[in-house]
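Hi Y.,

Following your request, here is the sequence exactly as I used it, all 476 residues.
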Amino acid sequence: MYSELGLYIDGAWKKTGGGGKSEEVINPATEKPLASLPHANKADLDAALEAAKKGFAAWKSTSAYDRCKIMAKAANLMRDRHDAMAKIMVMEQGKSYAEARGEILVSADIIDWYAEEGRRSYGRIVPGRGKGIRQLVMQEPIGVVAAFTPWNFPILTPARKIGGALAAGCSLILKASEETPGACVEMVKCFADAGLPAGVLNLVFGVPSEVSEHLLSKDAVRKISFTGSIGVGKHLAQLAAKGMKRTTMELGGHSPVVVFGDADPEKAADTIAAFKYRNAGQVCISPTRFYVQEDVYKRFLARFTEYANGIKLGDGLEKGTTMGPLANARRLDAMDSFVADAKDRGGKIVTGGKRRGNQGYFYEPTVITDVPDDSKIMTQEPFGPLAPIVTFKTFDEVVQRANSLEFGLAAYAFTTSASTAAAIGDAIESGMVGVNSIAISTPETPFGGVKESGHGSEGGTEGLSAYLVTKFISQG
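Below is the corresponding structure, written out as tokens. Let me know if you'd prefer a different format.
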């Protein structure tokens, strides 16, 4: 059932890297190896770069109309193959089959949306000041793109980068996660089978720092798109600055949730709890700090805890599973660290708080109360199924607490007051805010953060513009 892994360079699959190095891909539900993944060496990366340069020349000269047809065909192939792709994703990443299936279908929608939007990448004519002067503003693809994606969304995150780059007319070298390569390999096969010219899309794996530092040192790479941690993002931004390469950085978050006293606490709990435990909390926009106004705190906590206790933990391929394992052993250790610190700081574990079983990286859905604002769980991104829930008194107080961290990716609020909804939307320092809604990530809307959560956007017209440069032509 699992994918046959390899590097994809210049339209051909390589089952072994030039250096002969590889690593095992582990199933987080069983802790057993699935396959061996080849690593690219410098020669492989240079070959991918040469292929991307050649691919860019061909793809740039392909009309947006024809680019759209190839991308749309790839999206349809993803839909046709979604069942097999979803099972591969579950085996390597751990999320439930339903979540994996949904991710692939949404990713196909992303490719479709970008394909169509690429046909609408218009320039404009600016009236000249003198007779016979034409002033043209043109939008052109920036060039070769290097993209780096994490393990938590093995298809969705690459799809955003592939979609934007290809729709703009760029070529791409994608370094996907070494821990979850199979699903991405299958997506790249869809593009190859759709007729994408050789060199336009290349897929490599390897030691992340070695791959990124080698590619970012090359003049031909003009754009970097990275999704991952703040620390790595800052490092890559420094490397990119040496060559004045444009960057899009979607970095870490620690999303506050504000539940006001006039909200329906049970309805709010049902909505946000389901979102909290999606992908076992391993989501950059996962709600991670819960501030509930005192009047409705007990009702919200009771309903939220009830939801957490009703989650069925298990292998994502087993029928009825609603939450799978964490993606790797590192996350188990991280969860234990957060819980231990919360207990030391006076926090109470309402439910969960420990590993489930001794095989697979399963961790119980956890609810924690009575933790101070300076505790680890309230100041560092947990990236797991931990939900700290605390009280607040006033609007100004909760805004100050919600905005107190360096993160600014996503935030959520629940209220029945139109004025409060408008006020909290304005007051929160975040790239995305969901008010009575969790629908903050769609193909047609911008996705990105502020402060140390990064800069630039994926999705929407902003996501396409990220791969375009502006040229002004004055013609007499």
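The chain has a mean pLDDT of 97.

Thanks again,
Q.
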